[in-house]
Design a protein that fits this description.
- The chain is α/β, with parallel strands linked by helices and 428 residues long.
- It has 2 domains: 28-42 and 117-212, Rossmann fold (3-Layer(aba) Sandwich), CATH 3.40.50.1100; 68-102 and 218-390, Rossmann fold, CATH 3.40.50.1100.
- It contains 15 helices and 10 strands.
- Strands 1-2-10-7-8-9 form a 6-stranded mixed sheet, sandwiched between helices.
- The chain is globular and about 60 Å long.
- Mean pLDDT is 85; it is low at 1-45.
Length: 428
């Protein structure tokens, strides 16, 4: 039975055209090389859903999320989908949301989940600096730079182009406010080659530098979302078992971690993950996501004692059609570009449910969630829960920007590298 407090609050727990030139081939080749990651470092770890399920797990982490993120019913949204008619009185809530957007932590929930394990790995390896990369508006870059600053690590962020919006400009200023070194390239291939050069230089130099892949997608980073799925299992004791989870998929680390967590929990092919593609098709695919999930699972398996390892189920990551559906058709005009349908979806969730989404990731995935919910409602399949995992993690970047000592507070972008300043020009 759900408690009165839970009933009162409704909360459980605190395509652009494909490029075919040689630069794309170079980018893909370099990305495959740079994706190779070392196994996670071993060491004692605080209590987490993963360690409670597998007590012998020894993977280093740092604390960036101080409490489980809320699990809430989307009651208003469900009522709207039912045409204003409430669900039968004996029916439990059907549509739910896992709210990483309101995580209680220093850098926000979605990126923090990956960074807890990535930066734990960096410290375990004695790193004094980190290097990561992403597009101009990289959320992972901002989160990684701020978390690294608080841990006393120097940060370098390599940036590649994307459509310039007000949010992108804000993120660039926030990056500068963290003290990170910013290196901008006008092509994706140039950024990837620069990352390779920085990693090579680190190998030959005296400083220990830890590389964090774009969006934190690596076997170590994906452990964060395997842990998150087991967190959901602990919370869902008072909610219906979810047979489908909708999540956006860009580089795939979040979805891969969730898929690994589904296997670890023993819910393989009982809970289907619906990963909604929100990035360019040459950058991510269903096959690559499955490969990432298998590697995340193996990283956890290899960090277990034989007694815990013997309890792990066998999961067919590469071919199971019942465990994963890779959804295309919601990218719209391209990565980082919104459209009327996505804008309307973001507005809808804000107005009727009080949930904030971004237009790059969560807003597009929510469009599929609404389509899927309507399809299931027509078919009468509402007894088992449908869950949306909100990966948007808004952080008060304006406050961080305001606190920074800019050379000219009226024109803070003048402190950015000269290559980035034109992005703030009135005609930019």
């Amino acid at each position: 039975m759900r408690s009165r407090a839970t009933e009162a609050t409704g909360r459980i727990g605190p395509r652009p055209r494909r490029r075919r030139d040689s630069s794309v081939a170079l980018a893909l080749a370099c990305a495959a090389l740079l994706a190779l990651a070392a196994p996670p470092a071993l060491g004692s770890d605080p209590s987490t859903p993963l360690t409670r399920a597998f007590p012998s797990l020894r993977v280093k982490s740092v604390s960036l999320v101080r409490s489980p993120t809320p699990l809430e019913p989307l009651s208003n949204l469900e009522r709207r989908l039912r045409g204003g008619v409430a669900a039968p009185t004996d029916a439990p809530p059907w549509l739910w949301i896992k709210r990483d957007d309101v995580a209680d932590g220093v850098v926000g929930g979605n990126k923090a989940r990956k960074l807890e394990f990535l930066l734990g790995e960096a410290r375990a390896r004695g790193a004094t600096a980190i290097v990561t990369s992403g597009r101009l508006g990289t959320h992972l870059g901002v989160a990684a730079a701020e978390a690294a600053r608080r841990l006393g690590l120097r940060a370098t962020i390599v940036l590649a182009p994307q459509p310039v919006t007000a949010e992108v400009r804000r993120n660039l200023l926030a990056l500068r406010a963290t003290g990170a070194e910013l290196r901008f390239h006008s092509t994706m291939a140039g950024a990837i080659v620069d990352v390779g050069w920085l990693r090579l230089r680190a190998l030959l130099g005296p400083e220990s530098v830890y590389y964090i892949p774009p969006s934190g997608t690596s076997p170590v980073g994906s452990i964060g979302y395997a842990n998150a799925f087991l967190e959901l299992v602990e919370q869902a004791a008072e909610a219906p078992e979810f047979d489908e989870i909708v999540v956006p998929a860009s580089t795939g680390g979040t979805a891969a971690g969730l898929l690994a967590g589904i296997c670890l929990s023993g819910r393989w092919e009982r809970t289907r993950l619906r990963a909604v593609a929100v990035t360019d098709p040459w950058l991510q695919s269903e096959w690559l996501l499955r490969w990432e999930a298998r590697d995340a699972f193996r990283a956890i398996r290899d960090a277990l004692a034989p007694s815990d390892r013997a309890r792990l189920p066998e999961c067919d990551f590469m071919t199971s059609s019942k465990a994963l559906t890779y959804v295309r058709g919601y990218l719209g005009a391209g990565y980082g570009r919104s459209d009327a349908a996505t804008d309307d979806t973001v507005k809808l969730l804000r107005e009727i449910q009080g949930v904030e989404l971004d237009t790059t990731y969560a807003g597009k995935a929510m469009r599929h969630f609404l389509d899927r919910a309507a399809e299931r409602l027509r078919d009468g399949r509402t007894r088992r829960g449908l869950l949306f995992w909100n990966t948007y993690a808004p952080v008060d970047l304006e406050a961080a920007i305001a606190r920074h000592a800019w050379s000219d507070p009226a024109a803070p972008w003048l402190d950015l590298p000269k290559e980035l300043r034109p992005l703030f020009a009135p005609a930019g």
